[in-house]
Amino acid sequence: MINAGQALNGQVSIGLAPGTAASSLTMPLLQTVREQFPDVLVYLHENSGTSLNEKVMNGQLDMAVLYDRAPTAGINSIPLMKEELYLVGATACPGATIDLADVAQMNLFLPRDYSAVRKRVDEAFSLRRLSAKIIGEIESISTLTAAVSSGMGVTVLPESAARALVSSTHAWMARINSPSLNLPLSLNISARLPLSPSAQAVKNILLSLLNKPMTEERELMLVG
C-alpha cells in the first residue's frame, strides 16, 4: 500500500490513444500526482493503440489507456468501460440516432485500418454487407475536427471524443444503431515488467479518476 506523501520520485510514462475518455483526465491526473507525489514526473504520450501496446511491452511506457478489443500476448489488460460509437458531422443533423445503412451513404473521414475504431466500423459494414465511402484517413484529432467542421464529410468516434469535438465546434453527434457499436476501453500494463512504486501510485490515481462519474450528462457503460 502506498501512502500519500511517501517519498516517491522518478518518471512515470503513460500512453493515451487519441480521443479516449482518459484524455479528459490528463489535467486532473497531473494535478493529483503533483499534490500527492510532487517528485514524480508524469510523461504523457499520445499514439495509436497498436504502437502503445508495443511500447508497454518493451518498457518504453509504464502503462497505456486505449480501446482494445482482443487480448494481446505480453499485456495485462484492466477493463475500464465501454463507449458507444457516434457519427459526428457539421452539415444536416440526422437526429439523435442514425442507421448504419444511412452512414454508408455519407463521405467518411476515418483513422487507418489498425485503429480499434476503424476495425469496429469496418466489421459492422461488412456484417451488414455495406460499403463505406471513405474520403480521407486522419489520425490527428485537431485535423479531424477541421475536416468535419469544413462540411466535407463526417466521422465516427467513441462518445467521449465525439462530445469533445462537438463542444469545440458547431458539429452534432448521433448514436449509430442497427447495429449499435461500442468499444471497450482498457488500462494496459506489461505482463512481464513489474511497475515501479511510483508507477503503481500513478496507476492507482488514474484508476480512481476513471472510476469517478465523468459528467452528469454522460453515463458511460462501466464494465462490471
Describe the model.
The protein has 224 residues and is α/β, with parallel strands linked by helices. 31% of the residues lie in helices and 30% in strands. It contains seven helices and eleven strands. Strands 1, 2, 3, 4, 5, 6, 7, 8, 9, 10 and 11 form an eleven-stranded mixed beta sheet that branches. Helix 1 links the parallel strand 1 and strand 2. Helix 1 crosses helix 7. The protein is elongated, with a radius of gyration of 18 Å. It starts with 9 loop residues before the first strand and ends with a strand. The C terminus is likely disordered.
List the helices and strands and how they pair.
Blueprint: E1 10-16, H1 26-36, E2 40-46, H2 49-57, E3 63-67, E4 75-89, E5 97-99, H3 100-103, E6 107-110, H4 116-127, E7 133-137, H5 141-149, E8 154-158, H6 159-168, E9 172-177, E10 182-190, H7 197-211, E11 221-222
Parallel strand pairs: 1-2, 1-3, 5-9, 6-7, 6-8
Antiparallel strand pairs: 3-10, 4-8, 4-9, 4-10, 4-11
Helix pairs in contact: 1-7
Q: Classify the helix fraction into a percent range.
A: 25-40%
Describe the sheet with the most strands. 11 strands, mixed
Helices, by number, come to: 7
Approximate shape? elongated
Find the count of extended strands (DSSP E, 2+ residues).
11
Which parts are unreliable, with pLDDT below 50 for 5 consecutive residues or more?
A: 215-224
Helices and strands: which structural class?
Answer: alpha/beta
- The pLDDT mean sits at 88
